[in-house]
Amino acid sequence: MVRLTVDLIAKSRHHFKKKRGLSFPDYLKTLTHLHFFSKNIEDIGDLSMCRNLMVLYLYDNELTHIHNLDFASNLTHLYMQNNNITHIDNLSNLQNLSKLYLGGNRIAVVEGLEKLCQLKELHLENQRLAPGEKLLLDPRTLLSLAESLCVLNISNNNIDEIKDLTVLKELQHFSASDNKLHNMQELEDVFSHWPQLLQMDLIGNPVCKKTKYRDRLITACKSLVVLDGREINELTREFLINWKASKEAKKKKNNGHTMTGPINHHPFINDFSMGQAPLPGHTYSHADAQRWNLQQSLRAQKLKIPLCGHLGHVDA
């Protein structure tokens, strides 16, 4: 089994030979970057002497879990994509971590990131999941990242809904291509809560085949610059936003007219058709009076109230 230890660092031509003249312990204290990708590493040993480590490259190895990184409080970048990691563990002490790369592993639930308040980029694409399984994101983790996360990549993970991502109000780049997103209304609702969003990729989702897919997302994400690899023309955006506003205003006006319009559609004179008594001082014909009395009778029967009286004398 290949294990990442200080002994492995000592044997690495990429590292120690460049620092001749320093004792090995002193050299370890100066290390800010460690490059151990594609080395068939299966485990991480004691690296606590590398107290100033800031960037750790461990992608394309055989790691099954994350541990022994508690010492690395200065770590800002962690590259662990394309391993065999199944759980996100033991990262709570990495409170300066800014970028975390975990794509191409076997992670089914994204959790354990509640303490990473400085995390700006989270890459989780292409998890190798069991058939029928989809990547889940713990709401507590999402809430803890709401004020910091700017880049999220969850492509190709069988995901069919993203409503829990609404809290990520600082997102600028969002990749969710090759998933199973299908609900257009849900996407519009979520994206309307991301005022900073600049770039988005949803290629390969069923929702992309919906009518007016591109137009609707452009109007929902007013800051979006690139959608599915294609830049958004500013004149096109302005036209679509104005068109949507005009359509909504017209709909609102029509709804208001329906609510406040006349209820009775009989071709009577207004005061008769509304069931009101004749206006004082106005002269009405005998036919008007008959029509008034008839309407009052019908109205009384419908409302089941006693009729107080009918229109009496009418001026000639």
Quick structural summary:
This protein has 316 residues and is an alpha/beta fold.
Any chance you could write out the topology, listing elements then pairs?
Blueprint (H helix, E strand, L loop, with lengths): L1 E3 L1 H6 L12 H7 L2 E3 L5 E4 L10 E3 L19 E3 L19 E3 L7 E2 L10 E3 L12 E2 L1 H6 L6 E3 L19 E3 L8 H8 L7 E3 L11 H8 L5 E2 L2 E2 L2 H27 L9 H4 L12 H18 L13
Parallel strand pairs: 1-3, 2-4, 4-5, 5-6, 6-8, 7-9, 8-10, 10-11, 11-12, 12-13
Antiparallel strand pairs: 13-14
Helix pairs in contact: 4-5, 5-6
| Apparent shape | elongated
Query: What is the helix content?
Result: 25-40%
Main β-sheet description: 10 strands, mixed
Strand content: 5-15%
SS content category: alpha/beta
- Tally of alpha and pi helices: 8
Oligomer: single chain
Major sheet: arrangement of strands: 2-4-5-6-8-10-11-12-13-14
SSE sequence, one letter per element = EHHEEEEEEEEHEEHEHEEHHH
Taking all residues together, what is the mean pLDDT? Answer: 84
Radius of gyration: 35 Å
End-to-end separation in angstroms reads: 116 Å
Count of beta strands: 14
Uncertain regions spanning at least 5 consecutive residues:
263-284, 305-316
Q: What brief labels describe this structure?
A:
316 residues; alpha/beta; ten-stranded mixed beta sheet; two-stranded parallel sheet; 8 helices; 14 strands; 27% helix; disordered C terminus
